[in-house]
Write a structure and sequence with these properties.
The protein has nine helices and 20 strands. By secondary structure, it is an alpha/beta fold. It is elongated and about 65 Å long.
Length: 472
């Protein structure tokens, strides 16, 4: 994913109930790409699947941790790790802060399965060279309430403890009001959360978490591998959504595509390269960039901005803002594509579980080349997707294990960059775009998603066979 230079830290201290909207999110790229790109040629699992995932996770004692999704390489950027709160609390979004606290570790009881076999493939995410230590963790907490009145009362109470509010937003689609607070540097974060859980038993309370993009980079092998004709015969008008970077809707590959763009960060200082490539794979009707579902519509939600160190990130609160929009918009998306990874969050897990009853949720499994789970792909309500190379083998960089429900092309896949030129992209987030479209067609049909997943067998490789026709 390309990253743009920004001297200021992102800010999110708006007190608005409405997400910001923009027609396009075009940004020039003056910083080298963090994903591998080559443009020189310019040329859900249903219940059964969830049970299998739970069984695989229980079978392995290794510690869970998360990594950026389109980033392979063993020494990737350090990421914020948190363990699930003891009470029934959930994590939410984060807001920029200069304070730091000791990173928490994930639940060591969350297991992961054995290496499934051969590895072949490409590169990794956030940095081409040595990893940069991100600003972790945020000195911020998230609190939910049922009403704005309750949120105002909490704000008054917490002000007495020097805990200042940073932002508040009503999220009617998710059913709660989300408030983000700054915690003073001299306050113990864990002790504070425990105290507030006792003080506000009706609220979900957790530390704001960071998440990072998951991506890396011959022409049409991907369509052949999954059984999609070129040009695509998938003619259904299926509504899709994605939480990713911005999308440049004016590139040739996306002219005429039905894309509605929104921004949840208020920053727009991250490149739209990644989101443009993902949207092209799903929707393009251009002969040089054959998409999977050219007649689909896409709700493209930007959730990425740059942190003070220049790394691209998203935060729990930005994700929740985006998910609220997904839950509220009409028509309801049939499937949602997510290209980011981070640590476990009780709050996000609960939201994904609720949304999964209405739509299929798909997430990149990660590019660590290991069986370390990353979230949201590892949640039972989400379909995690790993990457295949042109030989149908798991890419060397692709994560594997219990949280990987599906496999799809994700290495050297031909797509469009935000400058309109062709490039090869690599990473599990690009594999996720194939799975998102396939599961969207399944979910819109009369076939249960669980039956489709069972039909894939042990390979778990997605196929469009029987999903597309001349009339969709």
């Amino acid at each position: 994913m390309h990253i743009l230079a920004a001297d200021r830290a992102p800010a999110d201290v708006r007190n608005s109930d409405q997400p910001e909207t923009t027609a396009t999110t075009r940004i020039d790229s003056r910083i080298p790409s963090v994903d591998r790109e080559d443009s020189k040629d310019s040329e859900a699992k249903g219940e059964g699947g969830r049970e299998k995932k739970q069984e695989r996770l229980r079978s392995d004692p290794q510690q869970a941790q998360t990594r950026p999704i389109d980033t392979p390489s063993p020494n990737r950027n350090a990421e914020h790790r948190t363990e699930p709160p003891q009470a029934s609390r959930r994590q939410t979004g984060q807001i920029p802060s200069d304070g730091r606290a000791e990173p928490q570790r994930p639940d060591p009881q969350r297991p992961v399965p054995e290496n499934p076999g051969p590895q072949n493939g490409g590169p990794d995410l956030n940095t081409p060279g040595d990893p940069v230590e991100p600003e972790i963790p945020l000195r911020e907490i998230l609190l939910t309430t049922e009403t704005l009145e309750q949120a105002d009362q909490q704000r008054s109470d917490l002000a007495q403890d020097r805990i200042a509010i940073l932002s508040r937003r009503n999220l009617p689609g998710l059913g709660f009001v989300l408030s983000t607070y700054r915690v003073p540097d001299d306050v113990d974060m864990d002790a504070l959360i425990t105290e507030l859980q006792d003080r506000y038993p009706g609220s979900d309370i957790e530390q704001n978490g960071r998440f990072y993009p998951l991506s890396d980079e011959k022409r049409r092998y991907a369509q052949r591998l999954v059984g999609v004709a070129v040009p695509s015969t998938c003619a259904a008008h299926v509504p899709l959504a994605m939480l990713d970077s911005g999308v440049n809707t004016s590139v040739p590959a996306l002219l005429g595509a039905k894309i509605e763009t929104h921004d949840m960060t208020g920053a727009l200082d991250a490149s739209d390269q990644h989101g443009t490539a993902v949207a092209t794979l799903m929707l393009s009707n251009h002969p040089d960039f054959p998409g999977l579902a050219p007649r689909a519509s896409l709700l493209a939600i930007n959730v990425f901005a740059r942190d003070p160190n220049g790394l691209v990130e998203t935060r729990s609160n930005w994700l929740l803002y985006g998910l609220d929009l997904v839950a509220s918009i009409n028509p309801t998306p049939v499937a949602v594509n997510m290209s980011f990874g981070g640590d476990y969050s009780r709050l996000l897990e609960k939201v994904f579980e609720r949304l999964s009853r209405r739509m299929v949720l798909v997430a990149a499994a990660g590019n660590s080349g290991s069986n370390q789970p990353t979230y949201p792909a590892a949640y039972d309500s989400v379909h995690g997707v790993g990457s295949l190379n042109a030989n149908g083998k798991r890419s060397r960089h692709s994560s594997y294990g219990a949280h990987v429900a599906l496999m799809a092309p994700g290495e050297d896949v031909w797509s469009s960059g935000s400058d309109g030129k062709g490039l090869y992209v690599t990473g599990s987030s690009f594999a996720a775009s194939f799975a998102t479209v396939a599961l969207a067609f399944v979910n819109q049909s009369s076939q249960p998603v669980s039956d489709y997943l069972a039909s894939l067998g042990e390979s778990r490789q997605i196929t469009f066979e029987g999903l597309c026709g001349g009339d969709g």
